[in-house]
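Amino Acid Chain and Its Fold in Token Form
===========================================
What this section holds: a protein sequence and its matching fold, both as plain text.
Structure line: whole-number tokens from a learned vocabulary of local backbone shapes, matched to residues.
Purpose: to set a sequence beside its fold so the mapping can be learned.
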Amino acid sequence: MTNMFSLQLLRELSITWLDLFAVVFLLATWIAYTIFADWRGRRAPSLHSQMDGFHREWMVRMIERDNRMVDVNVMRTLTRSSQFFASTTMLILGALIALMGYVQQALDVVSELPFTIQASQRLLEIKILLLVMIFAYAFFKFSWAIRQLGFCSTLVGAAPKQPKDNIEQYAPHINRIARITSYAGVNFNSGLRAYYFALAALAWFLHPWLMMAATGWVLYILYHREFASKTLRALAEEDHSTTLRT
């Protein structure tokens, strides 16, 4: 009974078992890598963990300064990065939704490309819908990062100025700002990962096997950049963490 229902559902959606496996492979890889990156980031140096140390040191220096225009400008730069991707994501979502009204024309274009599998109009709609879901997820991540950085800006403005020999007294305030900045970095990084996996999903328009190959390529790129890049080695040359504890 279950097999018959599954076959009927696949026929109604005009999707093959290979297409279904490719989608499951992409989503499973994405989820598994997110879990793995969080686990490994707590046990080995990563871009995020190294930047957390610099964020904490930045807040220590910020407390010592009278003029905090430098800190405001740095926070503004971080916010603008998230704002850029959030606005870009909205444009992409608008284009994808508009494309839903021109599925037949898009199908004619895709069918003329080499190494493509002939797909039905329903299947092409599903492929577009997958991209819509991925970019919607990215938008929520970027917009939440913007709000968190806005909270950090308020906390920077509320931070007192204290001499260097009394810095431990204000460790809770420093750690609070550093943690929220770290949370914003996590959300921004999640949004960027969505962009990477969206590129892999885009390969589905050509062939399911190509999407799986692109997913593996994205997985390699993400791991290398977060855990084995030259940038990480440069950040980890010295320990910039402070003695403050969360």
